Amino acid sequence: MAGEVILRTEKLNKTFGPTRANIDIDFELRCGEIHGLVGENGSGKSTLLSQIVGIIKSDSGAMHLNGEAYAPRTPLDAYDSGIGIVVQELGVIGNLPAGVNVFIGRHQRFTKMGIVNTAKINEEVREIAKKWDLADLSLGSLTGTMNVESRKQIELLRALAVDPQILILDEITQALSYDNRRRLYAIIDKFKAMGRSVLMISHDLEEVMGACDRLTALRDGKVVATVRTADITMNELKRMMVGRDMEGDYYRDDKAPSKGEDIVLSVRGLNVVGEISEMAFDLYEGEIVGFCGLSDSGIHTLGKALYGLSEGREGNIRLEKLDLPIDSPQAALRGAMAYVPKERDWEGLMMQGSVRSNLTLPSLDILKDKIGFLWTGALNASAKRSVEDFSVKCRDIAQEMNGLSGGNKQKVNLGRWISKELSCLILDCPTRGVDVGAKAYIYQLMKQLKDDGLGMILISDELLEVLGMADRIFVVKNGKIAKELRRGADFTEENIIEVML
Amino acid sequence: MSNSVNIKKTLIPIFVFIALIVLFALVFNLATHGKFLNAANINNILSNAILASFTAWGFCFIMALNYMDLSVGAVIMIAVYVSGEAGNAFGVPALVVCGLAVGVAVMTLNFAIFTWTRVPSWVAGLGLALIYEGCISIYQKYKETLGGNLVYLDTKYGILGRAPLIYVAFAIGLILAYILYNRSALGLNARSVGSNPNVARAMGINITRTLIMTGIVSGIFIGCAGFLRESFSAGSVIPVPQSLSSLAVIFPGFAAIFIAQVLGKWINMIIAVPFCAMLIYLCYNVFAMTGVPLGTISETMIALFIIIFGLIAQRGNKGVVK
Predict the structure, then answer these.
(1) Residue A116: how many CB atoms within 10 A of its CB?
(2) Which end of chain A has fewer CB within 10 Å, C or N?
(3) Helix, strand or coil for residue B320?
(4) Per-residue confidence (pLDDT) for residue A229, from 0 to 100
């Protein structure tokens, strides 16, 4: 019944070596409630979800589901208890077809004498997708060949396949583009209407404030407070999360576009077969040009194409000052262009590499001596300087990237470029998966780089981010620029969405 | 996507590949002045391709787990000799049962070693290959002390290595491998464990059980490769492997699986394996007919062929391919 407690945790604790990840967590989720978990990276949110779904075993404490003791040993126990989960720690199996992935570990009911009826699995997955109005996927394709967004949809289908009473979503929206986010919000609304519950983590505070009924803020592994969203302002929420006042807005406070005189990057007749067509624009010094559009609009291909990465690319991309055509990543590097891709962990960073290797990689040409030798001392000094300049929280520069929080990974991803003299910077979803503190830092950095005269391309699935930071916005639809908006009165979400849809 | 579209999507690449093989065959026939396309020669190529296919199918399961077992050639050779002894003593059923039993038992032992010692499988596999080759050498010496030679299967028990039964064995092997790899809980679990063991564990898949069971299944195909090879060579002695020469036994199967992996974008790997094996043996056959010395040179040519094939199939792929 709506309002009753469906899930309760009591004094949950979890320790990893010397780190106390969660300390005496008391938490309640009610029926028919959309509940958000907020906190900085490393505050213990994902650990708590992992404890709830049985990925991590709690050191002490208890959980109750529908008033009964609940102690899942694996995510399958959570599924069997009616909890559907999309969490960071559970991914998909790359070399299995998408449909099979939805029922991975639970294909017994499709199995007769050891033979799995994949046609029946796909049929059921299609029915689930139809029931929840999710986009069609090629269920026979290997999941490893799909993009991150499709993989997240498969995880969502897997969660919905148990017809859950509780749906747990850990930072899923940041992987989704505008249209698929709308679909997810519709699912969340449907859950609420059905008297079911959703427990979600998102670093997009506007999103959690808009979608959730109540929020629980965690800091350093402890619950700081649980509040109704109606009773709290955005600034109060930020203060709860970081433990200090976060003054002012994230975004730019000027209301008019500003740019230098000179063109930095000129793009003419850019085509990528099947993705984008006939794109043409100029980027000026000190200007931030934003691109937004739906999932299949081609905006993310644009970032790759500008940096010389996309296959089947035609057209003219030129760094005007250097009179240098950009037809490959090598040319882009020679022209001091930088590209921060959306898929940070897949395309941006070497996750098994050290902080030092990641920070120094784009600067090896500068760091090598006259005969091309790279001295350890020079590499260490450069990496240490970057760690300090960009406030990267890490044990030391030898630490593996895997061990860093999302925000600190992104600081490395961005910082390693910024430490060089750049001609222009392409940012694809630069704040994806980072917390409020790191977000504020990245926006501050962008403002500073703009003031220093750097031209930037900002591609984003978050409209507020583009509206908040760009001088001009190109709305992209079906691979073409559908509308150009200039910072000012026309800069509204409605104007963008009208064109996007 | 409708079933008919799926079937079309599956069948078209297979027909294209068959057409390609036929085209090769016609060209080879011209190059060899008509010697290539005669019944005996075709039967020889197909039989060799079938032997390589069983090895490759065994490897499909091993590689699904992200393992690499280089002792498989030596295991096949043990299966060859044991099934030969059993066949001579008790007839064809014993040949089959003992070949299978050796494949299953030794591959289970291998997987148990990989699983519990945690020594990387390719390292442990090399060591095991040397041990198994050593065992065969000891057995050979023992036979010599008795005044005999290493076993060769009596021709009358070699029916499984000849048409039509070798084709029946092939059909059974293909269906079994396809179902086990693509449609069985074990095949899906093995691919899950190989792809992402953490997710597999979290989703309730018993990792150890999956590893051992996959070892058993690969053992079935390796065992089949063993007794079919012995049947095919009935009446002659298969040389004893030493100093890792057993690796040569798996080379055609390996080559087939590498090409099948490249074709994986278009054709299911299990189905692609026999076609690829056929392609390999087409080349071997033509090399032999055109006077290319057998052994190192013909294998170098095959290796070049695989590389060229891979280059063509991977054109446009800018990523790093492992």
Answers:
(1) 23
(2) N
(3) coil
(4) 94
Q: What percent of chain A has pLDDT over 90?
A: 46
A139 vs B1: CB contact, 8 Å cut-off?
yes
The Cβ of residue A493 has, within 10 Å, a number of other Cβ atoms equal to 12
Residue of A73, A89, A93 to mutate, interface with B, max B Cβ within 10 Å: A93
Touching check for B6 and chain A: CB below 8 Å?
yes
B117 CB-contact burial (10 Å; exposed 0-12 / middle 13-18 / buried 19+): exposed
Q: How far is A397 from chain B (nearest CA, A)?
A: 27
Shortest Cα–Cα distance, A117 to chain B (Å): 7
How far are the Cα atoms of A276, A316, A346, A429, A437 from residue A341, in angstroms, in the given order?
17, 21, 9, 7, 21
- Euclidean distance between CA atoms B116 and B124, whole angstroms: 12
Q: Which residue has the tokens 């596999």?
A: B125
Instruction: For residue B160, give the DSSP letter.
Output: G
Cβ A411 vs Cβ A396: under 8 Å: no
CA distance to partner chain B, nearest, from residue A88 (Å): 11
User: ipTM score here?
Assistant: 0.75
Which residues from B are below 8 Å from A140, CB to CB?
A: 1, 6
A319: left (phi over 0), alpha (psi -120 to 50) or beta: beta
Spatial CA neighbour of A499 closest among A447, A463, A446, A451: A463
Q: How large is the average pLDDT for residues A289-318?
A: 88
Q: Does the pTM of the predicted model rise above 0.90?
A: no
| Sign for the pseudo-dihedral over CA of B262, B266, B269, B270 | negative
* Residue A480 to residues A283, A291, B58, B90, Cα–Cα distance (Å): 17, 11, 50, 75
> Is B322 at the interface with chain A, CB within 8 A?
no
Provide, as residue numbers in chain A, all residues whose Cβ is less than 8 Å from the Cβ of B179: 115
Instruction: State what percent of residues in chain B have pLDDT above 70.
Output: 93
B216 touches A: beta carbon within 8 Å = no
Cβ separation of A93 and B200 shorter than 8 Å? Answer: yes
pLDDT confidence tier of residue B298, bands split at 50, 70 and 90: confident
Distance CA A72, CA A65 (A): 11
Q: Quote the pLDDT of residue A180.
A: 84
The secondary element (H helix, E strand) that includes residue B282 is helix B269-289
Of A76, A111, A140, the CB nearest to B203: A76
Length of chain B: 322
CB contact A233 to B (< 8 Å): no
Angstrom distances, CA of residue A55 to CA of A17, A89, A244, B225: 17, 8, 32, 42
Answer whether A96 sits within 8 Å of B192, measured CB to CB. yes
CA distance to partner chain A, nearest, from residue B199 (Å): 6
In chain B, residues with a C-beta closer than 8 Å to the C-beta of A96 are: 188, 191-192, 195
Q: Can you tell me the distance from the alpha carbon of A415 to that of A413, in angstroms, rounded to the nearest whole number?
A: 6
Alpha carbon of A113: minimum distance to chain B alpha carbons (Å): 9
Residue pair B76/B231 in contact (Cβ under 8 Å)? The answer is: no
Higher pLDDT, A101 or B296: A101
Q: Do B64 and A95 touch (CB under 8 A)?
A: yes
- B202–A90 C-beta distance less than 8 A: yes
Structure tokens at A61: 């404490």
Rg of chain B over all Cα atoms, to the nearest angstrom = 20
Q: Are A139 and A125 in contact (CB under 8 A)?
A: yes
How many CB atoms are closer than 10 A to CB A419? 19
